[in-house]
Design goal:
Blueprint lengths: L1 H19 L5 H16 L9 H16 L11 H13 L4 H24 L3 H18 L2 H17 L4 H12 L21 H17 L13 H16 L10 H15 L3 H6 L1 H19 L4 H12 L2 H11 L7 H18 L13
Length: about 350
């Protein structure tokens, strides 16, 4: 696990240096893309969860396509299928490595570019992304990782009120993960208005639903949708019997997100939340993430998937603490400590990643 700690210290040092004396950062950003891209792409099969599962899926997709048995292919997104078939046709061996490298470099290139465009603290954004979502999105859930990268890119146009381009890019994101369609919910936000009472209420409702674990989707069990209803009821039985673990709503990272959101809602003036469009949007997305986490708490797999879609925007909120905390020039210190706490929780307690080693090249 030492290599993860070394990388965190490296990114923290760059973030502190940039806070003290901003510098021309293009070459540094490029170096970070290459470093993290190689790190994620060359990870060994047992360095993170799901690698072996992906290798099975790669073969499954290729075999079905080769046999013209395409009935199950709609289970996977067309973009994912195209990438698998392309690299599988190029390489008889090491195709899994090629696919992982492709996903890592495309995703990270888009994300680092967007961090630099959307945040005035790009290295803090990179630090928080590395601490919280890098391992999940670049080493485990690579499909949603690329979809969120495309989402970040779409925000450049969303913030310019170019809604048609935003919608088009989100549609592209759905070609890599179907759940990206939920990003269209952002069209319901009013960038010229921020109702503090409304967003605080959403957090309060989420706390109640998270405590009571009343899943909104219970109605599926009452609707006569044979297959869906049967699968849903079966899933509920597994949760109740302990086969599938239920959601721990009051985990430390969710509590931290709630504190972060409430701080921005009640401490930061509404005028600033409206003027700083990226922070206002990130705050709305984070509150939406918290709400979904509580409202869908009865369905763990769906809860995490939908919540994480919008939760990724929180990295811009965390990075902006260096501007909005009340400690002046010392704001960077508590901001780095928060990133360190998130990193420690993810790496040492989330059971997502394991000691790093490089994959074997055949």
């Amino acid at each position: 696990m030492l290599i993860y700690v070394v990388l965190f210290i490296f990114f923290a040092a760059i973030a502190i240096e940039y806070d003290l004396k901003p510098f021309n950062n293009n070459y540094t950003l490029l170096a970070i893309i290459i470093l993290l891209g190689l790190f994620a792409g060359f990870r060994g099969e047992n360095a993170a969860r799901d690698y072996e599962s992906y290798k099975i899926i790669f073969d499954f997709v290729y075999d079905l396509s080769s046999n013209s048995n395409t009935g199950f292919l709609p289970l996977f997104e067309p973009g994912f299928i195209s990438i698998v078939l392309f690299f599988r046709s190029l390489f008889d061996v090491n195709y899994a490595l090629a696919i992982m490298l492709f996903y890592a470099f495309v995703s990270l290139t888009l994300k680092v570019f967007c961090f630099n465009r959307l945040s005035i603290f790009p290295y803090l954004a990179i630090l928080f992304y590395f601490s919280h979502y890098f391992f999940l999105h670049e080493m485990i859930q690579i499909r949603i990782g690329l979809a969120t990268a495309i989402f970040f890119f779409s925000l450049i146009f969303y913030l310019k009120d170019q809604r048609a381009k935003f919608i088009l890019i989100i549609i592209v994101a759905t070609f890599f993960h179907y759940s990206a369609i939920f990003y269209l919910l952002l069209l319901g936000f009013n960038s010229k208005y921020f109702n503090k009472s409304f967003y605080a209420s959403l957090i309060g409702i989420s706390l109640i639903l998270g405590y009571l674990k009343i899943p909104i989707l219970n109605f599926l069990g009452w609707v006569d949708l044979a297959t869906v209803s049967e699968k849903y009821n079966d899933y509920l039985e597994k949760v109740q019997s302990g086969v599938v673990e239920s959601i721990n709503y009051f985990n430390v990272l969710t509590i931290l997100d709630i504190i972060l959101s409430l701080y921005f809602i009640f401490v930061i003036p509404k005028k600033l939340l409206i003027e700083d469009k990226m922070i206002g949007l990130s705050l709305k997305c984070n509150v939406l993430s918290i709400f979904f986490f509580g409202a869908l708490s009865g369905i763990p797999s769906l809860t995490f998937r939908i919540s994480e879609l919008f939760g990724v925007a929180s990295i811009f909120l965390y990075a902006s603490l260096v501007k909005y905390l009340p400690f002046g020039k010392f704001n960077i210190l508590p901001t780095i400590l928060i990133a360190a706490f998130i990193f420690y929780t993810i790496v040492f307690h989330a059971d997502m990643i394991y000691p790093y080693y490089f994959t074997r090249i055949k």
